[in-house]
User: Fold this.
Amino acid sequence: MKQAILLIVISLTCQLSFADSALTDSELKLLKIFTPWPPKVKKDMTNQFSQNKRAIELGEMIFFDEKFSKNQSQSCASCHQPNKAFGDSLVLSKGLNELTRHTPSLMNLANNRWFGWDGSSDSLWLQSLRPLLSEDELGLTFETIKSTFLSNQNYKKLFSQLKNHQHPETINAIPMSVDIAKILAAYQETLISQPSKFDRFINSTIKNKRISNELNIEEQKGLKIFINKGQCHICHFGPKLSNNEFENIGISYFIDSGVDKGRYGGIEALKKSPYNLTSQFNDSLSPDNEIRMSLIKKQSRNFGEFKVPSLRNISKTAPYMHNGSLKTLNDVIDHYSELNLDRLHTDSNSFFKPLNLNKEEKSQLKAFLKTL
Amino acid sequence: MLRTISFFCLLAFNANADHLKTHAIANDIEVNYSAPQDISVGQFFELNFTFSTPNLNSSIDRLSFKAFMPSHKHGLNYQPQITKTSDKTFKVEYLNFHMPGHWKVQINAFIEDKKHPFEFDFNLL
Assistant:
């Protein structure tokens, strides 16, 4: 009898905890799409240095080394700053010259399919090679990358250990530079966010089968907007809060010199690149790379599409969008709330509609985004 | 002429080796297809189609394939590979539904230049 009463009390308590919640059972089930975090990072088979401890250490040293720039005063970390989720707070990136796009965060890139705002890189090592060689970014050449590397005795020693005692002097500048890019990529693969307040909320809720108080009611209501009225999860899907694809969301793609073609130009650049995954520099023998390259075709809707960014650490990565044109989270929420459909490409995703959020909803959505 | 079969993949997040089969019939042509039971958003998968033509001896000459999200009015980001594996079977590889929601698959089986269309619905949550 006592046991029966106890069961009834427990049952009522559980029901009350769900009834008090801002989330329904079906919404809670949907939360599983955002798990697990941290993700299990798979070794990048295209990169011989992936998950190699020595390579990771060497990659970190190179990443912060200002000698790896034409003026010897800039490094990868000049734009990708650790205290800003490996991004910066500038509207547009600034290397040797100002660029046309905002610096993306380098967090949580491991195992992505595409890299860069336009997906012009199909590996993290190709994406790492690009800024080294860009005249507007670090401004090096294959020869100066090699000579800079060889000027450091410690780098030479570590590299030799990684390459079965092969002396770096004996390697030509191009494969040497690609190896350095791969070593940089090995380091960047390790940049994984700590579990967020949102992760703790999901894990606790699933584990205990009752809504966790990790998110307060305001934040829970924001989550509800994210997955219902906002439908944000359609693109910001999965544990990384990005489907790693490309969308045109009505952000201007006009630049001083004309037009930023976005994904359209990214596909063109990738197919032309002598260092993409179909090249001799890919360390994997899998035929998948050739096949996958054949699967992507330029479509008119790719014009002005840019990478769907991960929303993790979003409160640290202002300003927002590929051109940094939205300064704050309020601006981002206003952009989607009052979305100007005239600015979308006629072939764009017709799923996008103005969200028409009221002031309270905007505040709730912002509160939730800050938990990511 | 055109028959539609709905095939719902509910909360499909983990790969599963089980396959579901369904079929549609148009103009005396029957098609069965197999698909992974769990289709994950953003992951590549394949569909295998088997045609039966009880009143016709002809084989299927070719297959055209299209997938799109009706409410979004966009198609696939990756162009799948279609392979004829026998007179009446086709494999469609490297399919990738990059968003959750309703996807419509339209196929056309061609016999001596005559088109026989079929539609299938997939819902990924």
In short: Residues 1-18 of chain B have pLDDT under 50 and may be disordered. Strands of chain B lie at 4-9, 19-26, 29-36, 44-52, 62-69, 74-75, 81-86, 89-96, 101-111, 114-124. Chain B has no helices and ten strands. Chain B touches chain A at residues 11, 13, 41-42, 69, 71-74, 77-81, 94, 98-101, 125 (CB under 8 Å).
